[in-house]
Specification:
Elements: H1 7-63, H2 70-152, E1 156-159, E2 163-166
Antiparallel strand pairs: 1-2
Helix pairs in contact: 1-2
């Protein structure tokens, strides 16, 4: 059988498409991880906000109506300040996680586009191969038809009673 001239190119493109597909799968997994991380951090922030509000109220209720020293009052302010700073840090972590999601989405989209482009290239070569194979089959059929015609051509025929007639 005749070898397809672009078979090596087709194989290379198939290998590239397979690598691009694996990369896309990897990027999708990384996106899922980033989304889960961002959701987890958002949930932690919301829980911390509720807890911080309750904790501040508890601290204020503890000193409400009591005579406290300035040092104790400074410690209360420091505790509340530290709680609010921790909330800010958790909010920043949420924003960083959301940024990581956006980057992972961008990476995933780039991998998807690359895979799509490489797949189109493979499809083009496979389509060319299909057309090439059809042409080869037509040529083979035409050759077989010509061979059959040559074989069946009436150059020698029978006459009555075993006599040969040459045309």
């Amino acid at each position: 059988m005749i070898k397809y001239e672009l078979e090596d190119l087709l194989n290379i493109r198939k290998i590239r498409a397979e690598k691009a597909q694996k990369e896309l799968i990897k990027k999708k997994r990384l996106l899922e991880v980033a989304i889960n991380d961002a959701e987890k951090k958002q949930k932690e922030l919301e829980e911390f906000k509720r807890w911080r509000f309750e904790e501040e109220n508890r601290i204020y209720e503890e000193i409400k109506g009591k005579l406290v020293s300035l040092d104790y009052l400074d410690n209360v302010r420091l505790k509340i300040s530290l709680l609010r700073e921790e909330e800010i840090m958790k909010a920043e972590a949420v924003e960083n996680a959301k940024q990581a999601v956006r980057e992972a989405e961008r990476d995933c989209e780039e991998a998807r586009k690359k895979y799509k482009q490489i797949s189109k290239e493979v499809d083009k070569v496979e389509e060319h191969k299909s057309i090439w194979l059809e042409d080869i089959m037509k040529e083979s059929e035409e050759k077989v038809d010509l061979d059959i015609e040559d074989f069946n051509s009436p150059s020698i025929g029978w006459k009555e009673e075993n006599e040969w007639d040459l045309w």
